[in-house]
Automatic annotation (TrEMBL):
Keywords: Gluconeogenesis, Glycolysis, Isomerase
Reactions this protein catalyses: D-glyceraldehyde 3-phosphate = dihydroxyacetone phosphate
Source lineage: Eukaryota, Fungi, Dikarya, Ascomycota, Saccharomycotina
Domain of life: Eukaryota
One Gene Ontology term, aspect cellular component: mitochondrion
Self-association and partners: Homodimer.
Stored HAMAP family: TIM_B
Pathway annotation from the record: Carbohydrate degradation; glycolysis; D-glyceraldehyde 3-phosphate from glycerone phosphate: step 1/1; Carbohydrate biosynthesis; gluconeogenesis
Organism: Pichia membranifaciens NRRL Y-2026
Listed name of the protein: Triosephosphate isomerase
Biological-process GO terms, alphabetical: canonical glycolysis; gluconeogenesis; glyceraldehyde-3-phosphate biosynthetic process; glycerol catabolic process
Length: 249
């Protein structure tokens, strides 16, 4: 099953008009492969700005969070409808920084996924274990638990709007990326789990690797059949982001 290679850039809470203009203009002037889907996820105040600057057909924009309500008295929250109105089509949900720092439960993440899809967004769903969970041998249990909450909350068909990002927490921002072989191993088990829940639809769900991916290590993953792309934090802010996008060429 051919799955379109996908590269997401999670800017986290980094950015200014100037730095985002530099990033987007660098992409605009680059020769990007026609068969790679790229999604830039700037901080929410810059969603519309990023969408307006972007001139590449294969580049889309995504938010880093959205809430379970369309509008109302939810000070500080972000509606998926507002995200769409700003020209974005995607949202990252379940990032470990949201789960950890902001205490988002599996069920809350799953509700956000269901509502974002209901309102027409596509979702980059992040899952992954901490270093203690890895040492305890519970990597797959954690991933399956996080996925199970979403399986319960959304319709089977909704999975065509979900991209899964396997992001081991110990690899995020540490410079210690998982090896390509280890990523392939867990990705194939994640796909097996999805197959047990979704049947053959699981073959079309893209599973990205995230955690210290960069221009140098991205090519190591190129022959791994279940690594369908990357979710990139730090390196998405740098010119090397283009090398990650072109790493399958
Ligand atoms: C992330 O935060 O989603 C991420 C993968 O970060 P980094 O690439 O910086 O490890």
């Amino acid at each position: 099953m051919a799955r379109t290679f996908f590269v997401g850039g999670n800017f986290k809470m980094n950015g200014s008009k100037e730095s985002i203009k530099t990033i987007v203009e660098n992409l605009n002037s680059s020769k990007l492969p026609a068969n790679v889907e790229v999604v830039l996820c700037p901080p929410a105040p810059y969603l519309a700005y990023t969408a307006e600057l972007n001139k590449q057909k294969t580049v889309q924009v995504g938010a880093q969070n959205s809430y379970t309500k369309e509008s109302g008295a939810y000070t500080g929250e972000i509606s998926p409808v507002e995200v769409k109105d700003c020209g974005a089509e995607w949202v990252i949900l379940g990032h470990s920084e949201r789960r950890g720092i902001f205490h988002e439960s599996d069920e809350f993440v799953a509700d956000k996924v269901a509502f974002a899809i209901e309102k027409g967004l596509k979702v980059i769903l992040c899952i992954g274990e901490s270093i203690d969970e890895k040492k305890a041998g519970s990597t797959l249990d954690v991933c399956e638990r996080e996925l199970a909450a979403v399986v319960k909350a959304v319709k089977k068909d909704d999975w065509q709007h979900i991209v899964v990002a396997y992001e081991p927490i110990w690899a995020i921002g540490t410079g210690l990326a998982a090896t390509a072989a280890d990523a392939q191993d867990i990705h194939s088990k994640i796909r097996d789990y999805l197959k047990s829940e979704l049947g053959e639809l699981a073959d079309s769900v893209r599973i990205l690797y995230g955690g210290s991916a960069n221009g140098k290590n991205a090519p190591d993953f190129r022959d791994k059949p279940d690594v369908d792309g990357f979710l990139v934090g730090g390196a998405s802010l740098k010119p090397e982001f283009v090398s990650i996008i072109t790493s399958r060429e």
